[in-house]
Amino acid sequence: MAKAWAISGVDLHLELAGHRVRAGLEAALREAVQTGRLAPGTRLPSSRTLAADLGIARNTVAEAYAQLGAEGWLTARQGSGTRVASTAVVSPGPAAGIRPPLGARAARYDLRPGSPDLSAFPRAGWLSAARKALSGAPSRALGYSDPRGRPELRTVLAAYLGRTRGVRVAPDRIVVCAGFTQGLALLCQVLPDVGVTKIAVEDYGQPHTAEALAASGLTPVMLGVDDGGAVLDKAHGAQAMLLTPAHQFPLGSVLSPRRRADAARWAAGSGGLIIEDDYDGEFRYDRQPVGALQALAPEHVIYAGTVSKTLAPGLRLGWLVLPERLTEAVASAKARSDAHTSSFEQLTLAEFITSGAYDRHVRRVRLAYRRRRDRLVAALATHAPGVRVTGIAAGLHAVAELGPGQREEQVVARAAARGVAIEGLGGYALREHTRGPALVIGYATPPEHGYTTALARLVAAIRDQ
Predict the structure, then answer these.
(1) Beta strands in 218-371 (DSSP E)
(2) Percentage helix, strand, coil, to 5, in the chain?
(3) Using CA of residue 380, residue 382, residue 387, residue 388, what is the dihedral sign?
């Protein structure tokens, strides 16, 4: 029967099969090198240590090391011990089943919406905040914590959201989560328990959001979108709405004051719920910031925000501001899913906001993104005057309505041939694509040094009919 052993020196599990100990050890080590579990250059335990761990004779280990050295799997040097040879051939894993991340494409210039300029991430400031947060944190802060999130971050977020977005919230009404997607998944677990079976969503938006709602058993009801935002009178018996009122995604319109008031009255009068996705609320250019809809009906609006656009999606930090009746249920759902967010990252963000570094960073990138938007608009006006650009008063993307005779898929293909990733508006239609051909251009994503070239190639793709 095979024996399982854990050896010291390297984190490696060996299976010694058969009755011939030396042969079994050689086979186990050879297999570990071949499969890459022991990488080239890895130092192995001394023969004395390994023999003691495995309960076998030291000479047996020494002879196995010598044999594998002769075969070229291992090398031994005086004072350096025994290591995996740098020339050892590692068998590649099977290619089948290995898939690129969702949305990944081989494109040199990425003009798809949804991501900020990752090269602008404030590394030095974040590291400084991390050092200060870690040095000042009590040891218990690094243990299992409240599923709602660290109290330090929830306290800071309550003050920040009240100051910058007009959100009315106390820290105990906030649940920290790993971004909007996780927050929505938690809500999908809770909403049916409060009588929600239908949820109204804007008919242009993220397809995976509508798919997640449908997969959870909720029935999506489509709302049209015009220049005044979502058309709310098409809710058709829905008990909840999912809206992007400050900057509709992807069309860019703002929910009008009248419709904001209507939405709040509908929720308060019917007992309904509104999920407010404030995905890029910090970025306003040509108008005054629009406050959160949540302030009009705090006990009926779930406010969702993240740092995915302001800092980086890889931080996996977001939050839900919840009505009292849902707070405990959402926190319990998060606890059951064991989907906790790193306490260390939460403490770092709390310090980053408290120090003022977050506000300074947002102001800095807001100016940079406004300049990029202006360059995009100018480039299209000069070189593709038939294109109409909309949805540009805020956010990190624009909608470019193509001229007569142009088709989205053809422009997307021509851009791809030039190394530019771009998406057509039709990809965001959750029902029939009823609008004219258009592109959704994310002007924040490319690093600054590549933005001019990205624009030039995009313009060429649009003009080349």
Answers:
(1) 219-223, 225-226, 229-230, 240-243, 273-277, 301-306, 318-321
(2) 45, 15, 40
(3) positive
The residue that leads in pLDDT, 328 or 31, is 328
Distance CA 452, CA 420 (A): 12
End-to-end, the C-alpha distance of the chain in Å comes to 70
Can you read off the two tokens belonging to residue 253?
A: 């319109």
- Those residues with Cβ within 8 angstroms of residue 175's Cβ, 6 or more apart along the chain or in another chain: 147, 148, 149, 183, 186, 319, 320, 322, 327, 330, 331, 334
Q: How far apart, in whole angstroms, are the C-alpha atoms of residue 229 and residue 244?
A: 8
pLDDT in tens, 128-163: 999 999 999 888 888 888 899 999 999 999 999 999
Tell me the C-alpha distance between 384 and 246, whole Å: 29
**Per-residue CA distances from 421 to 39, 161, 457 (Å):** 36, 34, 10
> Per DSSP, what are the bridge partners of residue 303?
276, 321
Distance CA 50, CA 48 (A): 6
Residue 459 and residue 111 in contact, taking contact as beta carbons nearer than 8 Å: no
Between CA 218 and CA 160 the distance in angstroms is: 33
State pLDDT tens for residues 258-309: 999 999 999 999 999 999 999 988 998 887 778 899 999 999 999 999 999 9
Output the pLDDT for position 7: 52
pLDDT value of residue 259: 96
Q: Which residue has the tokens 């501001």?
A: 321
